Amino acid sequence: MIRVLFVDDHEMVRIGVTSYLTAQPDIQVVAEADDGSTAIDLALEHKPDIILMDLVMKEMDGIEATRRIIERWPEAKIIIVTSFLDDDKVYPALEAGATSYMLKTSKASEIADAVRATYEGQTVLEPEVTGKMMLKMRGRNTSLPHEELTNREMEILLLMTEGKTNQEIADELFIALKTVKTHVSNILGKLDVADRTQAVIYAFKHALVE
Q1: Which of 80, 106, 107, 151 is deepest in the core (most CB within 10 A)?
Q2: Which residues carry this modification: 4-aspartylphosphate (predicted)?
């Protein structure tokens, strides 16, 4: 049996979903709560396999409750079940430690399937949430290659544009020749270029030097 704690401040929602889950041969709702504070106590008391967590509730919201549960019980598997798809709800909930994210518009059967999947170690996300995360990741990946260079690597790249050899760079920076070679290799990899000449061309092309 998959033991579930259901947290939602709307009684009718709890009644409807709980009735469906209880009717499943492999799911048992062991406790219910209508606020985040009570949810923490029940989670630590019952140690359920899955916690279904609402977000907007009295006294303490689901994000804070999720964060506190994970802090005290890192193995907890929490599925957010909410009506909200706002960025200020989705990302904080996932960052707090929620495993899956569902909408209340989902069918009870879909929530049951999410319970089973999350129990098996999978992450279940509403398509809209997946889309938001993809867009956010694309935004993170729009940085230019040279922005990934460390300060030391950037310093060495600029010395390379002056035509200095690895030994000359090592002497000027008071570091080992082997260390310079490692940095140069990292620079070529991060800039995705084949050799020092292309690295220098990249530096001038992107106005890293005058």
Answers
A1: 80
A2: 54
